[in-house]
Design a protein that fits this description.
about 0% strand; 4 helices; about 100 residues; about 75% helix
């Protein structure tokens, strides 16, 4: 048991990959990382870490010398989409907190 009385769960690589793919799809639909993590029964931190690890693996595999133009274009398009999602989330969060101010 861990510090908080919870059992440490181990997940397969397939589950992690599927979770990251689902997160990417749901973010495009406007759902939050928290919503996806809750639906999968895992914590936000775990899902966030899996996403970062997947992005690092993809960057290493696609960012190698001699990368084809098509692979670079796919990588850059994915990066642009991620940045757009992060920007949109920041806009929504700013608007939400602006409403709460007196």
């Amino acid at each position: 048991m861990s510090k908080r009385g919870q059992v440490h769960r181990q997940y397969t690589a397939e589950f992690k990959a599927a979770a990251v793919q689902r997160l990417r799809e749901e973010l495009v639909r406007g759902r939050s990382l928290s919503d996806v993590a809750r639906a999968l029964g895992i914590t936000n931190g775990v899902l966030s870490r899996w996403r970062q690890e997947a992005e690092q693996r993809e960057a290493r595999s696609e960012g190698e010398p001699g990368e084809s133009l098509e692979a670079e274009l796919r990588r850059l398009r994915r990066e642009v989409e991620t940045l757009r999602q992060e920007r949109d989330f920041a806009k929504k969060a700013a608007a939400y907190f602006a409403k709460e101010l007196p």
